[in-house]
């Protein structure tokens, strides 16, 4: 089974047996302020809002070289790439912060971040997402206190437009978010992927994910029973 198939099926299981609702518990307010508030559900647990990282003026001006799958070099803002845990791990492991501070250039010419299978076109869309979510804390995953099932995120108008693409593009975003490890994009892609699959038959899901039909009739029946769900007809609003 392909990696995208595994990711989407995992996403489906996270939102299994849960209908879309307007419940705004745990919703992250999309505000571009120095301090971003996060609504939390009052379940008796002490939960601290995720912290928003503060950047210096120099960090806001930095550029980092990223190589796409086609070999294209894209100079991306460092403060946006900081949303990628994969990028930050590599940056810190190589000691690039000290090396960069000692350099007179605003571009880390001695550092090149490989984007593996992410195309230049897809990476530009990922940069759009990171630009829109700069200074927005990562979303908090919430569960319904009664059913213990995942509460759906409520998309902003901008986010709904971002995901107003065909399924193939959504899969590209999902794979990119998984590789870069961008929590906000990953979880929103997971929800959108689950929404696209919900209500589909096993055959339809197989075709969407380009999977070979190697299941027996009994396995198909078990799969249909396990993921017998009712999903929304469109992105959350």
Describe this structure in words.
α1 crosses α9 and α6 (120-132) crosses α8 (167-180). The protein has a three-stranded mixed beta sheet with strand order 2-1-3. It is built from eleven helices and three strands, in the order ααββαααβαααααα. The chain has helices spanning 3-14, 57-61, 78-81, 85-93, 96-101, 120-132, 157-162, 167-180, 183-197, 202-208, 217-226, and strands at residues 63-67, 73-77, 107-114. The chain is elongated, with a radius of gyration of 20 Å. The protein is 43% helix and 8% strand. The model is unreliable at 16-45 and 229-237 (pLDDT under 50). The two termini are 32 Å apart. The protein is mainly α. The longest helix has 15 residues, at 183-197. Residues 33-45 have a biased composition (Acidic residues). Residues 184-225 form the SKP1 component dimerisation domain. InterPro entries: SKP1 (IPR016897), SKP1-like (IPR001232), SKP1-like_dim_sf (IPR036296), SKP1/BTB/POZ_sf (IPR011333), Skp1_comp_dimer (IPR016072).
